[in-house]
Design a protein that fits this description.
Length: 244
């Protein structure tokens, strides 16, 4: 198996970043944390840990952080790159399952799916994610089980070929748009069941419900408009048929 790389975007994650790094480190060969202009003690904590830290002087958003980490790993020879969030929502012990799936399916994008047990997802998030899954699945031309999960494996070739904007206003658009872009480039979607936890007292989400949903909706509409709303893709999404 190729050397494993993990990228963790972090913005004001002082409460959780040490735990995330310590729990994930045994499962990967290289761990990169992108400190996205944190104003708390995230940077000080990272200085004490055995990881590569890429630092932004100011907050550029999650999209730019992910892209910085992904392209850095590929420039260092990574064949595929894992990502997970820095808020301790994911279970690092699931990393081997995602890497194993990536090894079996090197031409697919592996996405950790929380929907094998939707009862663990708060009702509001569950409903909004199902709506997003439908629209992004339509735009991607294949059913999508969990479009909002940040626990993924990206093939290096996808990172080299993808053309997706990563500006500050695209912070929470990137992970949706890269699914659509990957499908356009021929990388099929492959879900892997993962565990997830929503901690009591966790920091507020960086997701801005109104503006970020507007940006995601605009992106999906533009993608569909450019393809004439693709009725065949809609049929595939509704029928649950994945391209072979």
């Amino acid at each position: 198996m190729a050397e494993s790389w993990l990228v963790v975007p972090a913005y004001n994650e002082a409460a959780t970043i040490r735990t995330v790094v310590e729990r994930a480190r045994p499962y990967v060969d290289h761990l990169v944390v992108v400190n996205d202009g944190s104003t708390d003690s995230t940077g000080d904590i990272l200085a004490e840990l055995p990881v590569t830290v890429l630092t932004h002087d100011s907050n550029r958003g999650k999209a730019a952080s992910l892209w910085h980490g992904l392209t850095h790993a590929v420039s260092q020879g990574a064949e595929r790159v894992l990502t997970l969030d820095g808020d301790d929502q994911h279970e690092p012990a699931d990393i081997p399952a995602l890497l194993e799936a990536a090894e079996r399916h090197p031409d697919r994008r592996i996405v950790g799916s929380r929907f094998h047990d939707p009862s663990v997802i708060p009702k509001g998030r569950r409903r909004s994610n199902r709506v997003a899954n439908f629209w992004i699945g339509w735009a991607a031309g294949q059913p999508i089980e969990d479009s909002q999960s940040g626990f993924r494996v990206y093939p290096a070739e996808l990172i080299r070929r993808a053309k997706v904007p990563v500006g500050r206003d695209r912070s929470f658009v990137f992970e949706s748009e890269i699914i659509i872009e990957a499908a356009r480039l021929g990388f099929a979607y492959h879900p892997v069941p993962i565990r997830v936890r929503y901690r009591v007292g966790a920091r507020p989400s960086h997701f801005k419900p109104v503006m970020d949903i507007v940006h995601i909706t605009r992106m999906v509409a533009c993608r569909l408009w450019g393809r004439g709303f693709d009725p065949i893709a809609l049929w595939r999404s509704l029928r649950g048929r994945r391209p072979s």
